[in-house]
Amino acid sequence: MPVDPGAAHVDPTTLIDDVNSRIVQALSAHDPAELRAAAACAGVDVGETYAGRLWTGGVRPLVRRYPTGEAFTAALTNGSPDALSAAVEVLAVVEPAAAMSFALEVMRIDLGGFAFGHHRVPFELVMRGRAEKIIKRDLCSAPPEILLDMLRRRSLAPGEIPKSKIADIPVAALIACVGAGELHFDQAESAGLFSEHPALRDGAGLLDALLKTRWFSAADGHDGGLAQWLAHRLAEARYAPAVPALRELFTRQRRFLTTAGQNLLRIGTPEALEAAASPLSLEGVPVNEYDRHDRQTIAIDALLRADPSRAFDVLAPLFEEQALRSGDNRSESARTVLERLTPARATAEPRWIERSLMAARDRELGATARALLDQLDPGMVGEAAARMKKRERKAAARSTVKPLEGDLIERYRAGEHERVWEELAALDRRPPKALAAQAEAVAVETMERVRCGLEAVVETLRAEAYPFHKKARALVPPPLDALRSVRRLERLTGGRLPLSLRAFYLVVGSVDLSGSEERFRHDPDKHGPKPKRNEIVDVPEKYPFMYLSHFDPLVVLPLEEAVAEAERWAREEGERVGMNAPLDLTISPGPSFKANPRDAQPEPVDTVRLPGPFADVELHRGCGGTVPFVAHLRGCLAWGGFPGLAGTSVRPQAALDALARSAVPF
Asked: I need a labelling partner for 68 at 20 to 30 A (CA). Which of 54, 221, 335, 576 fits?
């Protein structure tokens, strides 16, 4: 009798036995010799030994286990398990239609709750495997639920399903299989089930399928590749009703946001661009709270495509000087805006040209902004530059200089070193002549103290056999034509040097405390006898000055090198129109160069931006962060010229004590 679907709770053993008895009954109508010939034709193998309901040995051909047809018939009659397991394959040779019917019955038996033996192959699974072999010979005759079940158990490859049968399998069932990991979706194997399915040939079917994936729910499933494929197909079809679904994925599913956002851009309707730009809307979350590498990039691109003018209202604050100085994600966001600004978009909203000119002066964004400006009409760039200069002149005319209290030089000499420099740094432009003269006197006095401190440091280092990289460059006084070189540098950069840097070049000159342990020479008078072979030595204690170069030694490059760099920069800037990009003048190389110049790797350098403020200039450290130039010198001399000592607990204390005596308050 056929299997009753409602009897799925029945023990599978009973159902299998019933199917076997009917198969034996169908075989009994055939001659034993015919059955043996059918067994030989089928080439079926059976287990060698059997105990309980499980095979415990290997396998061998059925015709070898039962050398005659009568023996095989007797084994079937006696209920031999190996004969019964082979019966359906023998029947498939003599009665294919009947065998197919029995095979489909076997496939409908639910074995999900059946308790199998430990490390053994159950008879029921062998029976199902033989049924699958019969069904695979004529898949066109199998109902869709059987094909789907075989797909789930991976006994049938997706590419084996006839194209005529694909339409019979519900798309929702296929998606459920992929989401549960029972069917692996990839372009090589499973994609054909979906690309050939008639339900997925229009936008409505694709959208319905996308909504059924687990990726559209709260939990991620195994159908991420399928969901991406469906999203790509919707974008290719420019199916506008899919925008709300793609927006949901773009704003909620982090792992899916790149694909969803890119496909919103591909659809390109106003609603799609609005959805892709939603993280940057005026009512949305601030830009710096989003992933700047994925969602933010897509949102910026969408906003610029939709409306460059509205994009300016939303994104222009990223280019404010205070935002760029903060060094947070906003700087990266501003770079993304410049990368997505095409000449057509910048021309459509001329205010973008002014923002690009402003960014061209920034240390981080300058190269990107200038690359964009090079593609624009020089006339439009020049007009924007003229408008900016006009506004800057008006702002300078309205600004006032706050009067400072007392005589600056007297206050400085009285010990108000840091306070006086803080007040000078607060000046936003050059003060009146009398106050400027006092400020210049403070700068000169400061650098004279710096020079005295450096002279003491260098003298101590030389006395202690510190391994200078170039001893002649340790401390070099200003050249005779230093003032002329300073004025040349000021002409090149278009403004007077900040007082602190100007006074350093004119009073101190240059300093280079970089070194290398490779140049260290053992001095018995200072270091005692050389350690014996395999002797363990406390290096910071025995050779306190040997490795000081690893602690960020103070370096300020010579004035002539600054002039040469400014000349190269001026030649490059002369080819640009209206950009006025500032010069980031190199003051010092990176830490690894100062520790061992011969083996140094390329790394960021310390720079100052020119033209700069009136009094003191910010030093941009290559390792990150900024510090006023005077404060940098103060911190360096506080650690004997090696400020990196502040960041380590393993300090050569003897060297530090000797150098600390060289410090001069300034």
From this structure: 54
- Measure Cα distances from 569 to 335, 371, 417, 586, 621 in Å: 22, 16, 35, 12, 20
Token output for 273: 């661009």
Question: What is the C-alpha to C-alpha distance for residues 553 and 632, in angstroms, rounded to an integer?
Answer: 12
Half-sphere exposure of 512 (CA within 13 A, CB side): 24
The percentage of residues in the chain with a pLDDT greater than 90, rounded to a whole number, is 11
Strands 626-628 and 583-588, bridge-based pairing: unpaired
C-beta separation of 99 from 88 below 8 A: yes
pLDDT at 399 over 60: no
**Strand pairing category for 475-476 and 510-512:** antiparallel
Tens digit of each residue's pLDDT (9 = 90 or more) over 588-645: 988 878 777 766 667 788 899 888 888 899 998 887 778 899 999 998 888 888 888 7
Report d(CA 46, CA 502) in Å as an integer.
Answer: 97
Calculate the alpha carbon distances from 428 to 51, 324, 396, 616 in Å: 97, 18, 9, 11
Question: Residue 177 above 90 pLDDT?
Answer: no
DSSP characters for 203-266? HHHHHHHHHHSGGGSSS--S-HHHHHHHHHHHHHTT-GGGHHHHHHHHHH-GGGHHHHHHHHHH
**Residue 391 CB-density burial (10 A; 0-12 exposed, 13-18 middle, 19+ buried):** exposed
pTM of the predicted model, to two decimals?
Answer: 0.59
User: What interhelical angle do 12-27 and 96-107 show, nearest 10?
Assistant: 180
Could you tell me the pLDDT band of residue 556, with boundaries at 50, 70 and 90?
Answer: very high
Continuous H helices in 253-377: 257-267, 270-276, 295-306, 308-315, 321-326, 329-340, 343-348, 351-359, 366-373
Residue 509 has pLDDT above 90, yes or no: yes
Asked whether residue 102 carries a pLDDT value surpassing 80, the answer given is yes
Contact 551, 474 (CB under 8 A): no
- Measured between alpha carbons, how far is residue 655 from residues 463, 474, 538, 646 in Å? 11, 18, 14, 14
SS3 of residue 664 by DSSP: coil
DSSP letter at 497 equals P
3-state secondary structure (DSSP) of residue 608: strand
pLDDT of residue 283: 40
